[in-house]
Specification:
single chain, 363 residues, alpha/beta, Rossmann fold, Glutathione S-transferase Yfyf (Class Pi), Chain A, domain 2, six-stranded antiparallel sheet, six-stranded mixed sheet, 12 helices, 24% strand
Length: 363
């Protein structure tokens, strides 16, 4: 899968640009603040309709304008044109000028794997952040997962509202809560199975990838879930047992919305004992696992973005990472150190794109 051409209108600091990319390596370089990350952010928005920076869509709209358009020509088995339109009122997506009414029907069409320095949050931050990364990865693999996740989140909100109503009124019907809870368990088990299978696939690859990058062995990812090893009947009993607690707090305290991941290196949690470099290499290893899984399960090679890769890593590890970038992977590397990246790439062919204050120069 490759993005052959990108058109931007009023995206971040870009007023209007049109650019073509190499099918293999694209190096985007320039000074800090010039718009390098904005360019790869636009590619990410084209794929997933939202930024990887956890910002509101309106932030992506250029100052003093009221519409942003991101358009790209994607070559996979066929060539298609994708568009994401952002306005203060909302977003619209199109494929070949046909409006797609459900965002979930658009996501997963363009597969993308991104590494950004903020991705260290995957290890350092809260369980909710790790679930977000996991959800994005699985959603690109299976659109049904995204639908199940949306259904589950709606049920959680409905159940929490009803719990509060029951606590205040004291005489609300338990039968309605039982119906919600049973459905919550059914969908929760499906989500659990998707996640369990995906982490099993991650562990199929991550130890070997991490060892090839760092020379260290025994990296694995543990999936921690309330639903682990439990049947529907066992879960129903747990929800019944927890009802008093749920009523007191006005929320559902048990379920896959509390799932978490632990990165374990040589029997120690990277979150607590890993260095910045070890954590970064673990996240990068996860990203290359995503590529391997998409290739195996979906027969597609995603677009790869490596944003500001060089910080915190020595040259040997960067060269080892570059070895995983074969000619089938269209890759975008952003950097302020163009000479260093070029030297570490060795004899790989590449296209250079110089960014200066929202202006692009193809070198």
């Amino acid at each position: 899968m490759q993005i052959q051409e990108l058109k931007l209108l009023n995206f971040r600091n870009y007023e209007k640009i049109q650019i073509t990319f190499a099918n293999h390596l694209n190096i985007i370089y320039g000074k800090n603040g010039s718009g390098k990350t904005n360019l790869v952010e636009a590619i990410y928005v084209l794929a997933l309709t939202k930024s990887f920076k956890q910002v509101q869509d309106k932030i992506l709209i250029r100052n003093n304008t009221n519409l942003t358009k991101v358009e790209g020509t994607i070559q996979n088995k066929y060539q298609n044109t994708y568009k994401v339109l952002l306005t203060p009122e909302g977003k619209k997506v199109k494929i070949d000028n046909t409006k797609i009414t459900k965002i979930s029907d658009y996501i997963s069409k363009i597969n993308i794997v991104l590494f950004h320095p903020n991705d260290l949050k995957m290890i350092k931050d809260t369980p909710s952040i790790r679930r977000k990364y996991l959800n994005i990865a699985i959603s690109q693999l299976n659109v049904d997962y995204l639908r199940k996740l949306n259904d589950y989140n709606k049920l959680i909100k409905t159940r929490n509202v009803y719990l509060k109503k029951m606590y205040v009124n004291g005489n609300s019907l338990h039968s309605y809560l039982d119906v919600i809870t049973e459905k919550l368990i059914e969908i929760g088990l499906e989500i659990y199975n998707y996640r369990f299978e995906y982490i099993s696939q991650i562990n199929k690859y991550i130890e070997v990838i991490y060892e090839k990058i760092t020379g260290q062995e025994n990296l694995k990812v543990n999936y921690c879930s309330d639903f682990h090893g439990k049947s529907k009947e066992e879960l129903l009993k747990i929800y019944q047992k927890n009802l008093s607690k749920d009523l007191t707090f006005g929320k559902t305290n048990f379920g896959v919305h509390h799932d978490d991941l632990d990165f374990i290196l040589q029997d120690l949690a990277l979150k607590d004992y890993g260095s910045e470099g070890q954590q970064k290499n673990a996240v990068i290893s996860w990203k290359f696992c995503e590529i391997a899984i998409l290739r195996e399960k979906k027969s597609v090679t995603p677009i790869l973005i490596l944003d500001d890769l060089l910080s915190e890593l020595d040259d040997v590890k960067i060269q080892n990472i570059f070895k995983f970038i074969d000619k089938d992977i269209q890759t975008f590397i952003t950097t302020t150190e163009i000479e260093k990246v070029v030297s570490l790439l060795g004899d790989k062919e590449y296209k250079k794109i110089h960014v200066t204050n929202g202006k692009l120069e193809e070198v």
